[in-house]
Specification:
The chain has about 280 residues and is an alpha/beta fold. It has a single domain, classed as Carbon-nitrogen hydrolase (Nitrilase/N-carbamoyl-D-aminoacid amidohydrolase, 4-Layer Sandwich). Helices cover about 25% and strands about 30% of the residues. It contains six helices and 16 strands. The protein has a six-stranded mixed sheet with strand order 5-4-3-2-1-16. Strands 8-9-10-11-14-15 form a six-stranded mixed sheet, with helices on one face. The chain has a two-stranded antiparallel ribbon with strand order 6-7. Helix 1 packs parallel to helix 3. The N and C termini lie far apart (about 50 Å).
Amino acid sequence: MKTALIQLNSGEDPDQNLQSALRLVSEAADNGADFILTPEVSNCIASSRSEQFEVLVHEADDPFLKAMQTLAAGKKIWLLIGSLGLHCDDTQERLANRSFLIAPDGNIAARYDKIHMFDVDISETESYRESDTYRPGNKAVLAQTDFATIGMTICYDLRYPSLYRTLAQEGAEILTVPAAFAQTTGEAHWEALLRARAIENGAYVIAPAQTGVHYTKNGVERRTFGHSLAVSPWGEVLADGGTEVGISYFDFDAAEVAKARSRINSLRQDRAFEVSK
């Protein structure tokens, strides 16, 4: 199954971001891709919380989501919108960071709200507080398709291996990790973490990413790492998007999941244990 990872440089204007995404997803579909994935916050990366609240809308009113559903139906593709920033129905104080799997008929097959918030102090000059703007989800999500079972995650979730273990043990053959990974942590950890999640779970890991400079505020850039990656169940990098906006392709083969798990079947060998202090 031909699969395409869309690498974006989303900015502060959702309409411009939509046009960029539509162009690349259409190109990938026209080139024969049946499963296409976009990165985290495909619709907006803004420099301030207030601006995000001003330009973003509720799911039912989101033009990005509607346009992507229409495109998926027209091209008859499976489409993972890595995530959209959206207003929540249950709170006016924080947004949702929500991933969508769109079926070839245009309907939403699954939704997943990012569980782990990127609240970190990387250095004295670089810190993030995602929980100030987004409220965390609390449910892991498995999505059933006609080609594989998909475990849906987003970006910082990558650092919590128990989530991926649970998804794989419940049947996930593909683990999706759409991201807007910071430049500093991307250089240090991105590939290593993705390959680890693939190897330890015997699953494909597909991680479309944001790339480049998204805005500059008070002389400080918001820059993401790029390098959208597809990793095989044996840990091989099958596609690397580099640092430019564009499309990376690879072929998904469900038989490779079964093959990897038959060689090292650690998913069924976990044991309970106690910690002695």
